[in-house]
Amino acid sequence: MEENKTSGRDEIYSAKVKAGKRTYFFDVKATRSNDYYLTITESKKRFKEDGFTYEKHKIFLYKEDFNKFMEALNSTVNHVKHELMPNVDFSQFDHVHEREEAETAETEVSAVKTPGVDTELKWD
């Protein structure tokens, strides 16, 4: 039996971003000494002949690097937005995110139905 790899590294907070065929997870975890760090995981669903699997890539980000990481990320994103693609209205992508969240919520609600129970009304 596989040991629990997160033993002593409790998850404190988590956020998920769906981005097309990829999903990004932002998780805050605690060390045994109550220090905190962030893991950023990219998950891609890959289809195989016998089903599918998830390919995952993970980045560990420690508190001493938070500010440098955010500065580099913001600087890079702003460079793309303002220097390389100044004519693109990036706010249009916000609506796509809202639609994806609504679709996910609908899927989760429909998945709650009891298996094997036909809930559709039928008229004779």
Q: Given the structure, what is the number of helices?
A: 2
**Average pLDDT, all residues:** 80
Number of domains: 1
Our estimate of the beta-strand percent is: 25-35%
Rounded radius of gyration (Å): 20 Å
| Low-confidence region ranges | 110-124
For the secondary structure, the number of strands is 4
Helix/strand/pairing class, anyone? alpha+beta
Kindly report how far apart the N and C termini lie: 53 Å
Strand line-up of the largest beta sheet: 1-2-3-4
Which sequence of SSEs, written as H and E, runs from N to C?
EEEEHH
Proportion of residues in helical segments: 25-40%
Explain how this protein is built.
The chain has 124 residues and is an alpha+beta fold. It is built from two helices and four strands. A four-stranded antiparallel β-sheet has the order 1-2-3-4.
Helix and strand layout, with pairings?
Elements: E1 11-19, E2 22-30, E3 36-48, E4 51-62, H1 66-84, H2 92-111
Antiparallel strand pairs: 1-2, 2-3, 3-4
Protein name: DUF3276 family protein
Family: Belongs to the PUR DNA-binding protein family.
Pfam families: DUF3276 (PF11680)
